[in-house]
Structure formats: structure tokens, C-alpha cells
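Appendix B. Chain record.
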Amino acid sequence: MERLVWARFGRACCAALLLTDGMASEPELGATPAHAERFDLVVASTTDVHGRIRGWDYYANAPDLTHSLAAAATIVDSLRSANPGRVVLVDAGDLLQGNPLTFVVAKVSPQPVHPVIAAMNVMRYDAAVIGNHEFNYGVPHLRAAMAQAGFPFLAANVVNAQGKPFVAPLTIVERRGVHIGIIGATTPGSMVWDRDHLNAAALTVSDIVPAVRRAVADARRQKADVIVVLLHAGFDEPSSYDTTSTGLPSENVAARVAREIDGIDLVVFGHSHKELIDSTINGALLVQPRNWAASVGVATLTVEQVKGKWSVVAHRGLSVKVAGHREVPDVVAASAGSHRATVAWVTTPIGRTDVVWRADSARVVDMPITDFVNEVMRREGKADLAATAAFSLDASLDTGRITMASLSKLYPYDNALRVIRVTGAQVRAFLEHSARYYRTLDASGRAPNGGIVDAAVPGFNFDVLTGADYTINLTKPIGSRITKLEIRGRAIQSTDTFTLALNGYRQGG
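C-alpha cells predicted for this chain:
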């Protein structure tokens, strides 16, 4: 049986966590009184934090208390106060990249201890799984960060050239005599997105499901009473890469893991930047907190001892938004040096503009802001063509001073510049693939029910090409929509060759 309940919860529905003074005023969260035969374990979780250690928007250089790991720490402290000795704290990956602070730490002003790790050490995390963005700045950067952590990073499906685990597949923690096996696994999509970094370190990210199945069996052999699986993988959404051409397994398999592997009590997952609370598949509770440290997932597992063996007899999930909660000073202090360095970097002026540049129509017509990005890539790479995604339709460059923050906001997930050689046939195929973002119109140009955009194709997969003139005819079927494709008035032939500048994420597949 599968019971799926999608929900977002705010403070109003969390009577058990009325945090007016940083402490829980109603310590019933955990419900069952603790005694020898039956009590509640509480698993608190975060995911896809992407450097949001404190409530600060580096793009606007202003406070933003809707996203803050330091505020999440207040929630965790209250859980521990209400459930002494019964709380486990975990993270489902994508910690070390994703905002200007993580970029500055990696590329501009390295710190003695990575600020994300320092904050997590203060919060006393028990385990984290490696996310795909952990590889973005290279494996040496990841190794250095992991070496500073007071908790293990896990990944059952990442191995080196000898087939040995890159990090531990699992760890076992103990709470009041109950042994909790925590297993980690991460999306194989990293073999597309960070192929160069993984190849340089001779690492392979394999299929999640069989790796977790082996780790669950191993945890049970090690006498784990409760099994918690941390996945950096979405629920069951389509993969953002072509699994057929790449030969890679799906990136979003949390539902499959719960459905196909018996004996799992809780799956905490992330990657897809959604929120899923209090859902059950095959007896396992599934929880996905909101990304960017916007909420804390709270899974309550009631355990009971029968004939000397502990097992989970009931469970429930809850989400607590961080908005409105005070930040823990020690967690804020953990990022003090990197915060100052990041503010200095994002406020550095690099130019000015007398007009507003917007991206709101960038997926419909040529927009200067997209052409600007492509032209910089094309000139820097000395390429014939350049392509980039209209990543966010909310992106803009406002009048006046342009800072590093202004540019960083256009593409928050930075990538390396790549230049490749392509044929005319590949350019056409590339544009046809991009045009899948739109649904097919009828002969009169009317959109089908549901609108013109295919919701199954993410907007960040719609690429815009600079250096060529082309027309997308949406009355044509998918695969035959590029009806004009020219360079300087000459039709591009299939056998022509060009150099194409693009980012490393797209070049990887």
C-alpha cells in the first residue's frame, strides 16, 4: 500500500514547537513516554542546504530568515530538549555548493574549516549523504571538507577504481539501547554532471537500489534494530538526463527504494527541491524537507521491545518551517569569517547599466540578458556558437551598479566553461531537443489543454543558441520543429562543423 500526502506546514500547525523563546513550550513532540519497552525515536533532517548557513541573501545583500541552518538549529535544540537522548540528526546532501558563500570558500577565500561543516559540527549531525553538488569543486575539495566533519558522510554506491567504497556505506548510532543503521546513497547523475571530476579521482557512482539493498542487509547483520536510508535522489520524477543514451540508472528512486527493499523504516531524501511529509510505502516512512534550510523534517518512529528485540511499530512525519525561529548564535558564529569575505565579494562593483535587463521572455524571443551571457562565453572560448539555458525567468540586471552578486544571481549553480566541436546535424538535434520544452500547437496555433509549456521538461533544460538564426515552429511535431537554421544568411548543412561554447553541466550530457 502506498499512502502519499503532500503538505507544507508552518508554525501555526506545529503546536508541539511553539518557539517563542528558543525552547519548546510543549515537550510532547515525541508523544510516547520513554520507558524500557516502548518509546519514540525522533529523526530530524535537512536537505539541499546549498550553503544557507545563516539567514542572509547574498544576492540582495540583505537578511532572509526564511532560509537558515542556524534557525533550523533552534528547532533541533527544541526537539532534543523535548526528547532527551532520543533524537538523531541527518542531512540528505547538497551542502557544499549553491550560493555565493560556498563559491567564495571554494575559489576566493578558503577558510581553515569549511563553514558549512563547522555549522553542522556545532549542530551535532549524526550523518550526511554525499549530494551531486558535493563534487562540483572537485574531489579534493570534498575530501578536505569531509575530513573536518565530526560526523560521517555516507554513500553506498560510490566506489573507487578497485571497487572499494569512497566513503562508508553506513553508520550505526545508538539511542537508549536501540541501534539505528543509517545508510546513504547518491544520484548516479553525477557521472554526467561531474564526469571530469569523478574520472580524475577514479570514482564511479552506480545504481542506488542494489547498493542500498546490500547495505540494508549488512546493517541487519550488524544488529541494527532500525534502518534509516538517506538518499540524495528525488521521489520518482523523470531523470533530467537520458538514461538510454548515457546508460545510467534513474536519478530519482526514493519511492523504488522503499517499495523494492524490505526492512526499511525511514527514507529521508532530497535532490528534487520539493517537500514530502508523512508518506508510507511498503511500511517505510518517507520524508523530504524543504530545500535551502527552509524546513526541518521530523520523523517520529515509535519503537517497541518484544522478546529482547526492538522494532518500529508506528511512525509519523512532520515538517517545521524555519521562518520565525531565532538563529542559534554558535551556528551563526561558525560562518563569521566566510560571511565577511562573501559580503565583500558580492558587493564588488564590476560595471553599470542605464537600462534594466530582464529574462522574463527569454524562452520566447531574443533577450539581451541571454545574448550577453552567450556572447561572453563565445568570445572567451573563441567559439563560433554559444548556448546557455534561460535558467530563471526572474533573473535581471537592474539599473545602476552591477556587482558580482548581480551576475551570480543569473546562474546560482556555477559551472566551468567548455568548448566542443559539433556538426550541423548535432546543432539541429540540440535545438530540437531543447524545443521539447513546448507542446505541439494545432494548425491554427492554438495550444492544447494545459497550456503551451510541457511541465515534464524543466525550464533549465531550454537552451538558447547565439551565433545562428533559427526558427522553432511549434505546429510541427517534436523532432521536426527547427524550420530555419542559418549562419550569416547561409543554411547550416548537416556536415558543417562548428565550435560551441557551453557550460560543463550541459557538455557532460
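Further analysis of this model is presented in Appendix C.
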